[in-house]
């Protein structure tokens, strides 16, 4: 990027005696941007009511004023190149948070689900730390009831990145008697992930876990801080949150505690999709419209799968659907959609009046389902 010092030099004795202060605090002409000329004088401009006063208090001549306006135009043109797109601002904030995690914690980890948000986090981590290795492993809590497309994507991505992947198994937690699998028509392994996650954190002694939660998803997430402290049992206390003034994040914790960190907390679903389009990020195919066998349950389209308990009341239909969010297959509903391209998805989301979490059956257990799970140690 060019600096203001690279604005074409205006050689003129008319600049002598220009006043201090004003709109442009300083301007340093420099024809060679690679070798700044420290001997050049700082020219201080002050433009007010089309008049300019020198240090001696005399009014500027017409010739001086014309030249100064020319300088203003040159500098304004240069400044326009530094205007950030809103996605650049969100990206810069997220990268800053990721680097804060790397700087403040000894053993962080990035929680990876194979969904669009955690995939976006991986791209942000690449921008934050490449060409070096990530200062944390990827951690996937595998329910055993995942979409096949998600697991295939995960394995290919890890192979491409060359990063370490740690997999915590919910099935292993069931086999060890630490959790009991739910029974009934709406049984799901989603809530069982909490125990497996806490065991994985304890086993590897992670002191920070980076997640892709966003405030626009759900009301419990809306009130959670970017650095969210969890006690030695992994529990979240909404009344024990720390202030985050001026983007200053306090990662100090006691032994046994850990912090959940949400770098894209301030993003919306639409922001994520716009970023995916801009960065040309590949996603699992289930995010795009495709034909799939589904059943209608509680007004939602659920994938017809061996992991979903079906009975004679469930009618299997074949519809064109896509998934707005990715979780355990037994609690993630699809929506009917013709959106096969990212631009179509963005247009579809722009018109939607329901949050993407509206397609998650586990959030409908109670009014405070997400907050209750978080208090118990959930993501």
3D structure, described in words:
Helices cover 31% and strands 12% of the residues. With 379 residues, the chain is α/β, with parallel strands linked by helices. The chain has three domains: 83 residues, no CATH class; 188 residues, Rossmann fold (3-Layer(aba) Sandwich), CATH 3.40.50.620; 79 residues, no CATH class. The strands form two sheets. The chain has a six-stranded mixed beta sheet, sandwiched between helices. It has a four-stranded antiparallel β-barrel with strand order 7-8-10-9. The longest helix has 19 residues. It is globular. The protein starts with 61 loop residues before the first helix and ends with a helix. The N terminus is likely disordered.
Mean pLDDT: 79
Number of helices: 10
- Rg (C-alpha, Å): 27 Å
Beta-strand percent range? 5-15%
Work out the number of β strands. 10
Order of helices and strands: HHEHEHEHHEHEEHEEEEHH
In CATH, the homologous superfamily of the largest domain goes by the name HUPs
Which class do the helix and strand fractions yield? alpha/beta
State the helical fraction.
25-40%
If classified by CATH, what would the architecture of the largest domain be?
A: 3-Layer(aba) Sandwich
* Biggest pleated-sheet summary: 6 strands, mixed
Low-confidence stretches: 1-56
Order of strands in the sheet with most strands: 3-2-1-4-6-5
* CATH level 3 topology of the largest domain: Rossmann fold
Instruction: Domain count, please report it.
Output: 3
Q: What best-fitting shape do the alpha-carbon axes yield?
A: globular
Name the CATH class of the largest domain. Alpha Beta
What is the terminal separation in angstroms? 39 Å
